[in-house]
Amino acid sequence: QVQLVESGGDLVQPGGSLRLSCAASGIFFSGATMGWYRQAPGKQRELVASITSLGETDYINSVKGRFTIFRVNAENTVYLQMNSLKPEDTAVYYCKAEFSSGSRYYWGQGTQVTVSS
């Protein structure tokens, strides 16, 4: 049974930091490309950051320099360190595990991040 369980979402003030975690089970974690997506109310889900099995990372422009994605294969966990948070970062954040160039994938249930004073 495949499970991706996100945690770490919270209410934080602008300028604050959060670290999201996504713990995976039931998959060959070290072979997966892992991604963090987010979906704000009324908007489409968007890819925020990704990391391949080789550790190559990619980010959307709006989070470059503020967010860092990293993985600990020994823990079957991928993290998203979010610094200098802005109100526009408010969204539900989802974790995705992807194999075979996207032909097979799994989603987590999401964790809410709210940036507000």
Topology summary:
Layout lengths: L2 E5 L3 E2 L5 E8 L7 E7 L6 E6 L5 E3 L7 E6 L4 E6 L8 E9 L4 E4 L3 E5 L2
Parallel strand pairs: 2-11
Antiparallel strand pairs: 1-3, 3-8, 4-5, 4-9, 5-6, 7-8, 9-10, 9-11
Let me know the average pLDDT: 97
What is the CA-CA span between the terminal residues?
Answer: 40 Å
What value does the Rg take, in angstroms? 13 Å
- By secondary-structure content and strand pairing, the structural class works out as mainly beta
The major pleated sheet works out as: 7 strands, mixed
Query: How many E strands?
Result: 11
Order of helices and strands: EEEEEEEEEEE
Number of helices: 0
* Low-confidence runs of at least 5 consecutive residues: none
Percent helix among the residues? under 10%
Q: Based on Cα principal axes, name the global outline.
A: globular
Task: Describe the protein.
This protein has 117 residues and is mostly beta strands. It is 0% helix and 52% strand. It has strands spanning 3-7, 11-12, 18-25, 33-39, 46-51, 57-59, 67-72, 77-82, 91-99, 104-107, 111-115. The protein starts with a strand and ends with a strand. The chain has no helices and eleven strands. The mean pLDDT is 97.
Task: Kindly list the characteristics that best describe this protein.
117 residues, mainly beta, seven-stranded mixed beta sheet, four-stranded antiparallel beta sheet, globular
Summarize the structure.
With 117 residues, the chain is an all-beta fold.
